[in-house]
Every structure is written in structure tokens, then in C-alpha cells.
Specification:
310 residues, seven-stranded mixed sheet, 9 strands, globular
């Protein structure tokens, strides 16, 4: 008999856990939540995300009850502490779409109507600083983030502070937006999405000896085979070439005039020399740290769910 720290479910098995056929999400709403080239369907929402949101609602309710009981025991008027969910995975794997769908569904369960979502791209070092450190080619790697600020942000959230601000990142400009922030004010649930949010490697001298994942109450890893993700990355690059890259202020506007084969070659080179390296060195090794793994097949559909045993 083989043993594992995870229970693995086929989609047929997992879908039986949803306990309802009613999907609190319309096709029009789902269209707004999908990322570039993502193909999440209403059936997938019903069969994968609805059971997952139900499970997470149990975790949230349990944490809220424990927090209240602990506060009563200590006779302490503790500030409201959000339940934090971390979502990790490769570039182009679809973790942003998964995060947005979960945010919408969780907000429609009773008991936690306020669900916020933060992407850790806002904590990337500004382009000027990356260039100064000569690590622009390492953007997205752990050292390209202001980890001290990210840890402080999460610490403030878990301390129950109100109106905690996070920087805003522009994918169009490929940089932090000066003097623009997102405010997180004691939501019931906060979803934190990013490439390296489950990493627990050594830190540089002077950096905190705690990790982003230390603040998570639950974590999810969105997974797919390397060659499949590469195909999605190249496909997304081609879509950007004919849309986002054509915008006047786009950082990558110089790619807009590439022909299709040049664009495919460029995207493949970027993937092989940067994103694949980051995936293998920093992202994939954190897969087994997640509480739940969503695995996708080549057509973007989730084909299995693995849940860590309690």
C-alpha cells in the first residue's frame, strides 16, 4: 500500500463534494474573471471551484470560531484577523484566474462576504532598482522582490491593523506605479497570489527570518507540466504582441512588430532562459508545501485535485 500526505481526487470524485448544483456565477461574470487565453468554464467552476470554495468556507468558519473562543478565553478584545489564502504557481499557469474565481465564490458564502485579493507583483522592486542591482533578467526571482515590505504588509494584516496599503504594479509599464496603492481594511478573507509565495529558502543578511507562507492559513499550488506551461506562455506572448504590446506606453512595445515566427522564437527564449529557470529553481520545489494542488492538463482544464491530509 502506498502512502502519501495528500488525498488525490479525480474531477469526478471532487465534484461530488459540491453539495449543490447551483453555481453563484454567471457566464458573463466568469468572462470578466478569465485571464488572457484562459478557458475556465462554468462546468469547471461547478465541479472544481465550488467544492473548493465550500471546503475553504469550512476552514474560514473554523478559524473565526477559534479566534473568538481564544479572545473570550483571554478576555481580550482582539482586532479582527483575516483568514489568508496563498496561491502559488508558474508564470502563465492561470493562478490569477483561479484566485479571482475563488475570491468571487468565497464572497458569496455566508459568514465572510468581504474577500480581498492581492498580487505580490506589487512588491517587486522598481525597475530602476532592478537595473541598479543588475538583476532585471531575474525579475520574478525571489531576490527581485522587496521581501521586507511584503512581510511587513502581511504582519500588519495578521496583527489586525486597519487600512494596510500595498503597492500597485502595472504589467503595461512593467513597473511599480508611483504613489498608487491598494488598501486592505480587515477583510474576512485575503487571497495572496504570486510566483514564490510558498518559498522558504534562506534569506539575505538583515532580512526577516520569517517567510510569506508563515502568514497563510491555507495554500494552493496551481500546477501543470513544464512543456504545457511553455506552450501557454508562448500563446499568451503572441496575444500580447497583437494587443497590449501595441499600446503607446507598453514597456514591451518593441515586440509588437515581430512577425509570428520571430515572436515565437523570442517567447521561447524568454521562457527557456528566465521563466523555466525560476520555475525549476524556486517555484516547483514549493509544490509539496501547499495544502492543496490543482493540476491542469494541456487544454487548461483542471484534471485532478490533491488535498493535504490534516
Amino acid at each position: 500500500m502506498g502512502y502519501s500526505t495528500y488525498r488525490k481526487f479525480s474531477i469526478e470524485q471532487w465534484s461530488e463534494l459540491k453539495d449543490t448544483q447551483n453555481v453563484p456565477l454567471t457566464e458573463a461574470e466568469l468572462q470578466e474573471l478569465r485571464g488572457i487565453n484562459e478557458k475556465a468554464s462554468i462546468d469547471e467552476v461547478k465541479n472544481v471551484y465550488l467544492p473548493l470554495s465550500r471546503l475553504l468556507s469550512f476552514y474560514v468558519a473554523s478559524a473565526q470560531t477559534l479566534n473568538q473562543q481564544t479572545a473570550d478565553f483571554l478576555r481580550d478584545d482582539t482586532p479582527k484577523v483575516p483568514f489568508i489564502i496563498g496561491v502559488a504557481g508558474s508564470v502563465a499557469v492561470g493562478k490569477s484566474t483561479s484566485s479571482r474565481i475563488l475570491q468571487t465564490l468565497l464572497a458569496r458564502w455566508p459568514g465572510h462576504p468581504r474577500v480581498d485579493l492581492i498580487n505580490t507583483d506589487g512588491f517587486l522592486l522598481p525597475t530602476a532598482e532592478l537595473e541598479k542591482r543588475k538583476i532585471m533578467h531575474r525579475k520574478g526571482f525571489p531576490e527581485s522582490y522587496d521581501r521586507q515590505s511584503l512581510i511587513t504588509f502581511l504582519s500588519d494584516i495578521k496583527s489586525g491593523r486597519r487600512n494596510v496599503v500595498a503597492p500597485v504594479y502595472s504589467h503595461l509599464r512593467y513597473d511599480i506605479v508611483p504613489d498608487k496603492y491598494t488598501t486592505v481594511d480587515q477583510p474576512d478573507v485575503l487571497i495572496v497570489e504570486g510566483l514564490n509565495v510558498l518559498q522558504a529558502s534562506a534569506t539575505a543578511p538583515g532580512e526577516p527570518k520569517v517567510f510569506v507562507s508563515d502568514y497563510f492559513d491555507f495554500s494552493i499550488y496551481v500546477d501543470a507540466n513544464e512543456e504545457v506551461i511553455k506552450q501557454w506562455y508562448v500563446s499568451r506572448f503572441l496575444t500580447f504582441r497583437s494587443s497590449v504590446f501595441k499600446q503607446k506606453d507598453a514597456y514591451f512595445s518593441h515586440y509588437a512588430n515581430l512577425n509570428e515566427q520571430e515572436a515565437i522564437n523570442t517567447a521561447s527564449d524568454i521562457w527557456d532562459t528566465i521563466n523555466l529557470v525560476n520555475l525549476r529553481e524556486n517555484i516547483s520545489p514549493t509544490r509539496q508545501r501547499a495544502d492543496l494542488i490543482l493540476h491542469k492538463n494541456a487544454d487548461h482544464a483542471i484534471d485532478s485535485v490533491e488535498l493535504r491530509k490534516l
